[in-house]
Specification:
Blueprint (H helix, E strand, L loop, with lengths): L4 H17 L1 H4 L2 E8 L6 E6 L18 E7 L3 E7 L34 E5 L8 E6 L3 E2 L3 E5 L15 H4 L5 E3 L5 E5 L1 H5 L2 H4 L14 H9 L15 E3 L3 E6 L12
Parallel strand pairs: 1-12
Antiparallel strand pairs: 1-3, 2-4, 4-5, 5-6, 6-11, 7-10, 8-12, 9-10
Length: 260
């Protein structure tokens, strides 16, 4: 049976509106391909800055070698990190050895417990301006991560680490699991909460807050990351793209399961 004219028109209008306003059709979103190259499972997580929506439910599971594509609005600002050693069936808190968010699989906006290696990004609203992103060890380290645009460019790439920080992490910064294994390395700020390490109060400027023996150790292992708050030159990358690849345990990292 032929549809009435008004109904046909309404359906056609619906298709146009759906094409214009659905994120994937309009291109008003940015895609992140989150890839797990670690030889074990991880639980990537996301948290938005204030005023921005939660993406990918705030967290998900990736087996070794698996990639998941997630989407963010093109003006999104927030962070991505990986959780390790998670067990969400034990009803215990924390559920993860590193990066835990109140024992939940879907963090739903909660920030992970440091120390974790943080990928931070600020997307620009019109989709044509460069997006700003970095990797930070200001609160510490749990896994290496690399970030690049899908069309790989050296100027748009944040490389992984040349060394496994857990192997050189001093005792005073170590985070151990219940088996006594080192699962993360705290920053000096997180470990000691001193203004001189946290670049706060009277040390709240680049002139007053200088690299410490701890931040230099971080920088030596992971030269592309922020090693402390006023790291210079600032390892901030700005590149325009609608697709980014975020890889945990990239090939430039020589770690294995036993060493982390």
């Amino acid at each position: 049976m032929k549809l009435p004219k008004w109904n046909t028109y309404g359906f056609f209008l619906f298709l146009i509106c759906h094409s214009l306003f659905s994120g994937r059709s309009s291109g008003h979103q940015v895609a992140f391909y989150v890839h797990n190259k670690c030889p074990f499972a991880i639980w990537p997580a996301t948290a938005p800055n204030t005023g921005h929506p939660v993406i990918a439910d705030g967290g998900f599971h990736l087996t070794s070698g698996e990639t998941k594509r997630i989407y963010a609005p093109w003006d999104w600002k927030g962070r991505i990190w990986a959780r390790t050693g998670c067990n969400f069936t034990s009803n215990g808190q924390p559920a993860c050895e590193t990066g835990d968010c109140d024992g939940r699989l879907a963090c739903n906006g909660l920030i992970g417990t440091p120390p974790v290696t943080l990928m931070q990004i600020s997307l620009q609203a019109d989709g044509t301006k460069p997006n700003f992103y970095d990797v930070s060890l200001v609160d510490g380290y749990n896994l290496p991560v690399s970030v690049t645009t899908k069309q790989i460019s050296s100027k748009c790439t944040i490389g992984g680490c040349s060394k496994n920080l857990k192997n050189s992490c001093p005792m005073e910064l170590q985070v151990l699991n219940k088996n006594g294994e080192i699962v993360a390395c705290k920053s000096a700020c997180l470990a000691f909460n001193l203004d001189s390490f946290c670049c706060s109060n009277e040390y709240g400027s680049p002139e007053k807050c200088k690299p410490s023996v701890y931040s230099k150790m971080f920088k030596d292992a992971c030269p592309y990351y922020y090693s402390y708050a006023f790291d210079s030159p600032a390892p901030l990358v700005n590149c325009a793209s609608k697709e980014y690849i975020v890889t945990f345990c990239p090939s430039s990292w020589g770690g294995d399961r036993s060493s982390i």
